[in-house]
Design goal:
The complex is a heterodimer. By secondary structure, chain A is an alpha/beta fold. Chain A has six helices and six strands; from the N terminus they run αββαβαααβββα. Chain B is an alpha/beta fold. Classes of the chains: A alpha/beta, B alpha/beta.
């Protein structure tokens, strides 16, 4: 009885270890920054995360922006983040996809518009971070079939796909009305879906990895950890 | 990884077994504990099961039909108060009939039937927009004679075209909406001084909430885009002076209904594609 229990337990342990060990597909990531000026932020200053305009062909996902907002605000070194919708609405119509400045050269003219500088000051916004990029499936293959009937069901086969998450964040300093630099995250990962009756998804969470990597680097970039 | 490269890419498949509906006799016989009491109502059982079968099949077909398209109803959107100096003019706004009820239907790629109902959205939206922009706004109906009212100008917005695209067409995850509005402004003498096409665009990625939600959001973004364009177009002191007649107008009157847009250099309509 003990031997039987032992072998069953061992099988379960191996299965659990396999599932935990392979629970995530392989991910490779590269996060870099390019600094153009000295940064820093006071406790009463805040940042706002914006997506570059879809008029320019950008397709940054709303959930990625929300992920960066949450990641930047979290932790002991969390930044004060103004929700982008609140910021855009408070400055309507000057940060709409069509009207938002595409270069820092447009900032002085924007600040001269009635009420704009005061509204930005009220919210304590020091940096605008413009996100550009998206997550795309770049390759995939395999074959997987599932069947279901009165007696039960199951799947058999193997499928895989590769996702690339490429994001670029341009940091604009509203104090000097100039660009502070850029941070990029390039994450690639392959997901697998083997199935022998039960499909076991081994998902490479490239977007989540790109969010975490970019947010950490952005925080260091703005706080200027790298210089100290 | 060799297996990855040699296997032919293929979509995931679900092979479903046919759905069977048990007959009335089977149901009755299987419930031996209440068999006696049910014996007298055998015909009633059969009728009940036939009804249930009809309802089930009806629901199934309705679900399949619904999967081939969508019906989107837009609630009137609200726009934030624009960050601008209020234009010191009293204007009348005459809404066209289709601003009270606008429905656009389209068959996408000959398969999906999409219907978007903007309802009163345009009427509410433009009343709100002009209400923020001008010192005084009066909405006049088509039956009202604006010449007996004392406005500095009469504004007539209208829709020239409405188009949208769904992910199947563009092979992306995005829904897009284009609305081409036309803004006509008449001065206090009833002369057409502004005739602008306003091409607005909104785009929204498909979310977990489904396509209808994304299309609705794209339409709202297109309307916000139109609002931004209208505000920018009116953000010209020379234009406002010309319309209200407080300075020498450079505008030549334009005949209504013609293809040509405003002839004046400062007031000429330009396409905002």
């Amino acid at each position: 009885m003990n031997k039987l229990w032992s072998s069953t337990a061992t099988c379960r342990l191996i299965l659990a270890a396999t599932v935990v060990g392979l629970g995530a597909g392989c991910v490779t990531s590269r996060v870099e920054d390019a600094r153009e000026g000295i940064t820093g932020i006071e406790s009463d200053e805040s940042v706002v995360i914006m997506a570059k305009s879809y008029h320019l062909g950008n397709e940054t996902e709303a959930k990625y922006i929300a992920c960066i907002e949450n990641a930047l605000a979290r932790g002991s070194k969390g930044l004060r983040v103004i929700p982008h919708k609140q910021f855009v609405d408070s400055l309507f119509p000057w940060f709409e996809p069509r009207t938002a400045p595409t270069e820092t050269k447009g900032l002085p003219k924007l600040m001269e518009r009635p009420g704009v500088a005061a509204r930005i000051r009220e919210q304590g916004v020091r940096y605008i971070i413009w996100l550009d990029g998206d997550t795309e499936k770049v390759a995939g293959g395999g074959s997987l079939s599932c069947a279901a009937g009165p007696g039960g069901g199951g799947c058999f086969g193997f499928a895989w796909w590769q996702n690339d998450s490429d994001y670029n964040a341009s940091v604009w300093d509203l104090e000097g009305l100039e660009s502070a630099g850029t941070v990029t995250a390039d994450v690639s990962g392959t997901s697998f879906l083997p199935a022998l009756i039960v499909p076991i998804p081994l998902i490479a969470r490239t977007q989540a990895a790109a969010c975490k990597g970019l947010a950490n680097q952005l925080r260091s970039f703005i706080i200027s950890d790298e210089l100290t | 990884m060799a297996i990855c490269c040699t296997t032919r890419p293929r979509a995931l498949q679900w092979i479903r077994s046919p759905i069977r509906i048990n007959s009335g006799t089977y149901v009755g016989d299987s419930r031996s504990d209440i068999g006696t009491s049910l014996a007298g109502t055998h015909a009633g059982q059969q009728h009940l099961i036939a009804t249930l079968r009809t309802v089930f099949m009806g629901t199934l077909f309705a679900s399949l039909a619904a999967g081939c398209g969508s019906n989107v109803v837009l609630d009137p959107p609200t726009i934030p108060e624009p960050l601008m100096t209020t234009i010191p003019m009293s204007v009348g706004v005459r809404m066209p009939e289709n601003f009270e009820s606008f429905i656009h239907e389209e068959e996408v790629l000959g398969r999906e039937q999409w219907k978007i109902d903007l309802g009163r959205s345009n009427a509410v939206f433009f009343a709100q927009l002009f209400g923020y922009m001008f010192e005084s706004v009066t909405v006049v109906s088509a039956a009202d004679d604006p010449s007996i009212m004392s406005f500095d100008a009469l504004i007539e917005p209208s829709i020239d075209e409405f188009e949208f695209s769904v992910p199947n067409q563009t092979k992306t995850d995005a829904f897009a909406v284009w609305i081409r509005y036309r803004i006509k402004v008449y001065d206090r003498d009833g002369k057409l001084v502004v005739n602008w096409p306003v091409s607005a665009y909104g785009k929204s990625l498909t979310t977990a909430m489904g396509g209808s939600d994304a299309l609705q959001r794209a339409a709202i973004l297109a309307m916000r885009d139109a609002a931004a364009l209208v505000i920018i177009k009116f953000d010209e002191p020379a234009l406002i002076s010309s319309i209200s007649g407080t300075s020498e107008s450079t505008a030549a009157p334009v005949e209504d209904g013609g293809e040509a847009t405003a002839q004046a250099t400062t007031l000429a309509g330009d396409d905002d594609e």
